[in-house]
Amino acid sequence: MTTLPAPLPTFDASTIRKRSGERNITLYAGLTLFALIVLAAVFAPLLTSADPLQQNLLQARLAPGSPGHLLGTDDLGRDVLSRILYGARVDLRVGVLAVVTPLVIGSILGLLCGWWGRWFDTIVMRLVDIVVAFPFYVLVIALVFALGQGTKSIYIAISAVGWVAYCRIVRGQVLVAKEQEYALAARASGLPTWRILLRHLLPNVILQAIVYAMSDIVLSILAIVTLSYLGLGVAPPSPEWGSMIAEGQNSLLTQWYLATIPGLCVVVVGLALALIADGLVNQFNKR
Amino acid sequence: MQYALYVVRRLLTLVPVLLGITFVVFLLLKLIPGDPAVTLLGVHATPASVAELHKQMGLDKPLYQQYLSFLGHALQGNLGVSYQYRGVSVSSLVFGNLAPTLWLIVVGMFFAIVITVPLAMISANKPGSATDGAVRAIPLIGIGLPSFWVGVMLILLLGLKVKILPVSGFGEGFTGHVQHIILPALTIALAQLPILIRSLRASMLEVLVSDYIVTAKAKGLSRSRVMFGHALRNAGVASVTVLGVNLAYLIGSTVAVEKVFALNGVGFEMYNAILGRDLPVVQAITLIFAVLVVMVNLLTDLAHAALDPRVRLG
Question: Among A8, A275, B52, B173, which residue has the fewest nearby CB atoms (within 10 Å)?
């Protein structure tokens, strides 16, 4: 019960050497792909003139490639491309924002656990053991169920579960870093604790947490999509990829693309973020 | 003897975790906005009948007493009565649906291992080759795979286009179960592949450069003997832990996957309970899933300690 939810690529912060001139293709590919997705979501109104909520039963169930509807229309005649683009706004926003609170809370707790240790560490680590005993989805689903459907509940549920990973990562890094010379020097020179923690330790231990945050965004997007598929996420008729898959599953035989396209979008977002995470690891290992 | 000591120590660590889990599950009730008695009786209930139900449900007692009685009941296997199906005990509802879920987890894990091992071995055998590149692309593409969507795609391809497998329910008899479990189990396995392949490949590469592998090669052992007999055995031990942690994730994804395939397991029951706002059932299933994960972690740790003496000494 002491391992992380996903094996992390590790890097050694002590071997930071800059080898200039070498390009990190993985990182740039990931950043470019992610930037394109974000731009498509932000400029959705410019990319499509169709309203994602506008129903038109006369134009229902058009195949992809129909004039005016590049990706076709769904059972209610709503434009699929427009729903995908506006859905990206919801899923990306919630996915990225849901990671911020756990990152901050988990890192602070991890910093304090690693630095202080003693009873504080014991209590927080017991809490960690309890949270990781629950399967991620089951606890998130149960929490959202109790708090009520909606994005606010999703933020709370993901934060309540997600801080654990950051806490463990940062704690582990601090345990190593605080014995290193620069940290000992800072202590010996009598700097206040908060200054050592924030100015000396944090910049050295936070990188690994940020790398993890990239895959955590994917995890939280998957959670939102899954919750919406189960009818606990973003309320219909708001366009959202998970509920689009759920609606598309009903007409799988006649319009396979309705359930297929939103899923592919999640995969592409995952690919972009995985490339960024791998690229970051390469970058830090190389230096 | 040493192993027995380790087992005792490990079992003792379960106590705070199990207490914590039950407390979290108990608190779910407190998170719900509004009065549960009013929810049950409806908005037109008289204050007297609400107070009566409060007394019946123990809601008039202090929080710690409510928790202790919840814990006491849970230990006796009494998990309350379903809101949705009046009078049906939650434990009979949940335990009656446990079989399909256990099938799904076991067969899913089996598929995951059967697919992961050869791919990771081929990949680690020749790092940098085209095959290795293809295998390494799996985690990148797979990290964002929603497990339930994989299920929908499998239904589309193998169930509806090439009609070779049933797409919903649990079937009749042993052969029926086997046929019906293949697609859901494959779904769960495919969603696990990225993490499993990545970790086994990494530990294989690590192991392959160690001294005892060089020795084994120098002794003139065949390539396959070295790979399977020596390298996989040691890399596998490290991956057992990863497998254990992932099983927790896998167990969680059964909720959505069982819904996709209308497989009447515990996960599907949780979905139904959510639709019916059936809190006791949601609570009970959350608790059972958590206990399942704790048990799996316990078994993984015990297996790890049995395989690797360094663990039980530490």
Answer: B173
